[in-house]
């Protein structure tokens, strides 16, 4: 292999490696028997991400970041993770700006 083709080969392999996504910390508050409110910490009125409700052994997720979207999960942890945004988006969400990919 020539130097140019070796370099291009290395670059093409590097492009396909995606960095790991770090997820934001969230607050989980029980608001009833089998109901939880999920939000970003900080007390902003925009911090509310959604709600999780336990019904018939399934965790139903109602997302405020994706209006009219409802999900189901097998565990509370999976339900919370469905609402947890990437850490890079947390400051924008707290400022009232919803990232386009969350819509």
UniProtKB/TrEMBL annotation:
Highest taxon of the lineage: Bacteria
Protein's name according to its UniProt entry: Uncharacterized protein
